[in-house]
Amino acid sequence: MKSILITGGAGFIGSHVVRLFVTKYPGYKIVNLDALTYAGNLENLADIDQSPNYFFEKVNLLDVNELDCVFAEHAITDVIHLAAESHVDRSIHSPLDFVYTNIVGTVNLLNEAKKYWKEDMENHLFYHVSTDEVYGALGETGFFTEETPYHPNSPYSASKASSDHFVRAYGETYDLPFVISNCSNNYGPYHFPEKLIPLFINNIINKKPLPVYGDGKYTRDWLFVKDHATAIDTVFHNGKRGDTYNIGGFNEWKNIDLVKLLIKQMDEKLGNEPGTSDELITYVKDRPGHDRRYAIDATKINKELGWKPSVTFEEGLSETIDWYLENTEWLNNVTSGNYQQYYENMYANR
Ligand code: NAD
Ligand code: DAU
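# nicotinamide-adenine-dinucleotide complex -> structure
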């Protein structure tokens, strides 16, 4: 029987992956390991946390003894590693937090897998979930493929790039079976409102300014989080060991165009006159080292593994907005306390 350790399962993407695996695979034991930082929230899993195949361990990746206990106690057979510090703006203010969790934490996890799987490596899998940001920035044209050289530009992406290299190095050096996927920007329910889409949804609800960085023409490639979860399921089960898969939706948006679509959908849903929230758009000081454009070529995962996204951006965005409008308690809980201080510090000088 598989006993899968999913790290970061109380976070945004992790909670969708845990939910999918717990419900789709009742024969698998799913162990969610999460330190419950500001980004981790067990409310994200309230609908499945009583399932008999679900277990939670509040453990920090930096605590090697605790990690060791989890591997021993649950006889972990596979790892899907999502736990990370994930916000670029935070990485600009506190790069070392990203070095510790994203690099040292990943190496700690690799060491545990190597130690517990050494007798029969081939029966196990270390799946590392990474980001397209490791490739750096694109110009007006072109796409990131699996062959694009790494060129990280932020402390966040540098830490993720480093963790990708460590995973690959453990494969080469110690024969640890691994697979890596690099995904574009996710959006959807349970997204912490420090990132563009949930932050702007929250600000539109509260009629607060929408802080657009720089000229607003930075471009991102957006994927609905539930589609990322199905891609992870596909790569976990069918991906070639030692390989990398890019995951994306061929869905590029300039930030300002995305913000206008968001405003349009939200004004409709809130019963506002069309364009009411336009006046909230506020151009602010740019993010340092801001990558101009990301765009994923997801041909390989489509051709080799048959995965493709299930919803259009308009559908996914509409479902996302509905979720936030119906889950105001979740939103209020995560935006109280330390969030207020974070918001003041991050946007005071912009
Ligand atoms: P998130 O910030 O929402 O969640 C991260 C989770 O990791 C939280 O639950 C947090 O408590 C946990 N965590 C943080 N530090 C930890 C530590 N030291 N020990 C144990 N747990 C710890 O992140 P997310 O947006 O869900 O991203 C998940 C993963 O997917 C990350 O590895 C990220 O790099 C990658 N990714 C994210 C996106 C995106 O658009 N959000 C896109 C591509 C890849
Ligand atoms: O590409 C994948 C990455 O996407 C993930 O690896 C990261 O974990 C995830 O946070 C995300 O990174 P971005 O930096 O692209 O996401 P963010 O939501 O922070 O910003 C999206 C775009 O919006 C970016 O161009 C910056 C801009 N932005 C963001 C915020 C928070 C604004 O203009 N104003 C804002 O207030």
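# post-check
The chain has a mean pLDDT of 97.
The CA atoms of residues 127 and 179 lie 5 Å apart.
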